[in-house]
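seq:
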Amino acid sequence: MNEKEILVPVQPYLSLDADDYKEIIPRRMGISNFYEFHVQKGAPANFKAVPDDSTDLVFGIGAHDVRVLLGGTVLKAKDWEFEDGRYYFGARFFPGKYILPSGLTIQEVVNQDLEIDKNEYGAGLTDALAEAGNVKKRAKILLSYLAENQRDQTKDSAHVLEEYLRQRIYATNGNISIQMLSRETGYSECYIRRIFKQIHGISPKEFERFIRFQSFLSAIHGAAGQVDSEELALNCGYYDQSHMLKDFRAFAGTTPEKYKKLLKEKTTEKEKIISCKNIR
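struct:
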């Protein structure tokens, strides 16, 4: 599978609800996208997070300091809390592609939002990010610091196996059994589960559910006008509509129809804001 076919993880509520949300897609260093947004002083600072098996490295830039936050995938729809009065710059890593500080494991990050020392990714990084003028400049700075953290890292047999498993799950829309993966790789089912959880912090079965859900989300966003949820569900690897509804309610915290209505409302609202800015 080439890079273009990899499903890009999304956090739709953040992009829909956050003020001045912008993002760029570098596809470098295992990063799916860089993003930025602002939380005004006194404004609501909670956004709903959805499962994506990604890891987010976020810098909260305030008037006097910079907070560094590290969050792993949530396991169901969950509030993602930010402090108001800060500008936020983040990097979202593809599943299995994170770069963690020394001594921290992915198991400690999954379903958590951890504040870490500002120098974990290099002395001077937070100051440089705070002084940069836009998301592109900040992305360039962060990539440079991450490259230092990634030096001399080589793939061992466990990571080679994990990459094969992940690619096969992507290619099948999350519909390949552990038994089949075991036959294809020659490794036992127990070993496959252990290696996958060691690198992802979740089981292959959970990852497959997240991939189907993320695929369905992307399909909703990419479809023009009214789309049939059942047809989309089948195209995204679900057995039937009830199978999709169960996961969607748990992972998005709402139904597909209510989500599509929200998406339409938020898109229209943002278009009006952009139109007003252009008139000025």
